[in-house]
Design a protein that fits this description.
about 325 residues; alpha+beta; 13-stranded mixed sheet; binds zinc ion; zinc ion binding; zinc; Carbonic_anhydrase_a-class; carbonate dehydratase activity
């Protein structure tokens, strides 16, 4: 009801809607410490139960207010095709990949952002945004795990590539809270074929099982994690972890990438990680790959009672008066699929 249905329509600040939005938001804020009431969407209630368990969502950070919070449920038919949206231009330098670490909430891979070697531009963005890190959100089971939803459908996992506006801000920390400070590419993961780029990352996971563990990662090209189809939805939102800053231009890819849940395969002893996949019968040292590998990580530090790192997604947030734009035209066949 609060949405602006067409591009260029009335802005909330220029109408009486802004008061309504503030009142509605105030009511919603009071429910944030009880996430099962954070929105009225069907899948949300079940998803929220698990999130409420993590210490990240206890305390003041979980009640920060705002009118453009993320993630959201993207309603395909309500998104507006905007022919002015340019294609995304992604240019990443594999050599700028630094390390992977267990943040205690996520599996995250960091990049050297001291130069413009890796970044994204185009799409809805006015500037080049430098790549800072990427990370994943996933579920305990395949029925949930992604942060965004599409027509109420959630995926087993979601990848976020986080970039900051190096034209307007001197560093990532200042960009986080600044206007147009961040640009995040979202990619859904669905079950299917094994994904070799992801498998290369999975090999480092045993070394970062516990919170705060960190390992160096050699050259890694993150564009290999993007789907071939670059169609996307875009909207103005927030970080989905504290400080929940409303500085993010989101670009969520329409097409997921495929990842296997688990496969009995792995690098043969003595072979380099870049060698071809072994056939399944010859795999002598089996490892978890794909989604099950992510589920071997822990929220907890060494010496603490072990708690498996799963369901590290934030519940859906109300769209409020925002518009979701798409870079592509929905067809009757594709809509709702
Ligand atoms: Zn994220």
């Amino acid at each position: 009801m609060l949405r602006t249905p067409v591009l260029g329509g009335s802005h909330p600040e220029s109408s009486g809607l802004s008061i309504l939005v503030k009142q509605t938001w105030g009511a919603l804020r009071s429910h944030w410490l009880r996430p099962e009431r954070s929105c009225s969407l069907g899948p949300c209630a079940e998803r929220s139960k698990n999130n409420a368990l993590h210490s990240l969502w206890k305390g003041p950070a979980s009640v920060r207010g705002g009118a453009r919070q993320s993630p959201i449920n993207i309603r395909w038919r309500d998104s507006i095709y905007d022919p002015r949206l340019k294609p995304l231009r992604v240019s990443y330098d594999a050599a700028s990949c630094l390390c992977a670490w267990n943040t205690g909430y996520l599996f995250q891979v960091e990049f050297d952002d001291s130069s413009e070697g890796s970044g994204v531009s185009g799409g809805p963005l006015e500037n080049l945004y430098r790549l800072k890190q990427f990370h994943f959100h996933w579920g305990a089971v395949n029925e949930r795990g992604s942060e965004h939803a599409v027509d109420g459908h959630v995926y087993p996992a979601e990848l976020h590539l986080v970039h900051w506006n190096a034209v307007r801000y001197p560093n990532y920390q200042e960009a986080v809270t600044g206007e147009d400070g961040l640009a995040v590419l979202g990619v859904f993961l669905q079950l299917g074929a094994r994904h070799q780029a992801l498998q290369e990352l999975v090999r480092v996971l045993p070394g970062i099982k516990h919170k705060d563990a960190r390992v160096a990662v050699g050259p890694f090209q993150p564009s290999r994690l993007l789907p071939a189809c670059r169609d996307y939805w875009t909207y103005l939102g927030s970080l989905t972890t504290p400080p929940l800053s409303e500085s993010v231009t989101w670009m969520v890819h329409r097409k997921p990438i495929e990842v296997a849940q688990d496969q009995w395969s792995g690098p043969r002893r003595g072979k380099s990680p870049d060698d071809e996949w072994p056939d399944e019968a010859s795999a002598s040292s089996s490892v978890h790959v794909g989604l099950d590998a992510l589920r071997t990580l822990l929220f907890t530090a060494l010496g603490e009672e072990e708690k498996t790192m799963v369901n590290n997604y934030r519940p859906l947030q109300p769209l409020m008066n925002r518009t979701v734009r798409s870079s592509f035209q929905a067809t009757e066949d594709s809509a709702g699929s």
